[in-house]
């Protein structure tokens, strides 16, 4: 016998240290954060929510729609459908703390600027979080919940990181990664990053059915995975990587992960990678640096940008904008032409 619907109620969630409104809608359990740990304040927000819920459904003016409501709707309805729901949830928690009690109309360049100052995080992190707020507001407008969208001012895009590993640093890092616990997967992770230029998640989620050792190909795409701007693609296996994969295949299973610990998928490699960097005395490096290193080495060797863009599953425009200055022919033609006498021009002495 199904449980009786008890209607909307206020509930304390210990793991989030906050009061939540819980209710059932069309057979599905829903929840919405009040954005506060104070019981009296949560009850006031709950009462206002009940009052708005009883009104006629329809688009609201931005001055009548709370930022916390829009963020919660976006997290619950769009969160499960995107590639990185955890990152969106983390951004929503930070935005909720700051914009608690504010309406969409209160989102101005001034309030966005104050958010940047109060957040005290890197420019890239704050820009990404405000991007979630912008997406949530636009989503509410598309769904007919607010009458018009409101502009969200983002901080300037940070300059691309130019930290990459030299050949000597890469060799030192691989040697430092050969510890007792991580000796099987950490060096292989570094080699995969250096020779394929793929992101951490693409490498950690790689299974043996995606690796064709006979044809010499790796397909980093996963069937059913939602396509995003961060493409994965299919790459030929570089000759220096192939013997390492052959040895790893003997330790693996037909359907298992290429990188594993006792057969289980490795959740994250950040701490182990940082420990290897510390042992190798290498600073300013993270797993994503391996991707930067692979592309930088490729460009410095004089590889055609169009072919490099195809191998690393990125656009030529992005490749030239971020890594173009590493190419040996970068602006060389311009430098050679500066001061060169034009043809068919008579010089009058």
Keywords:
mainly alpha; hpI Integrase, Chain A; three-stranded antiparallel β-sheet; 14 helices
Report on the structure:
With 349 residues, the chain is mostly helical. The protein folds into two domains: 134 residues, no CATH class; 121 residues, Orthogonal Bundle (hpI Integrase, Chain A). Helix content is 44%, strand content 9%. It is built from 14 helices and eight strands. It has a three-stranded antiparallel sheet with strand order 1-2-3. A hairpin with a 4-residue loop joins strand 1 and strand 2. Helix 2 packs across helix 5 and helix 3 crosses helix 5. The radius of gyration is 26 Å and the shape is globular. The model has no long low-confidence stretch (mean pLDDT 83).
Secondary structure elements and pairings:
Layout: E1 9-13, E2 18-25, E3 28-33, H1 39-54, H2 67-78, H3 85-99, H4 109-119, H5 123-142, H6 167-176, H7 186-196, H8 200-204, E4 211-212, E5 217-219, E6 234-236, H9 242-251, E7 260-261, E8 264-265, H10 270-279, H11 289-300, H12 305-311, H13 316-323, H14 332-337
Antiparallel strand pairs: 1-2, 2-3, 4-5, 5-6, 7-8
Helix pairs in contact: 2-3, 2-5, 3-5, 4-5, 6-7, 7-11
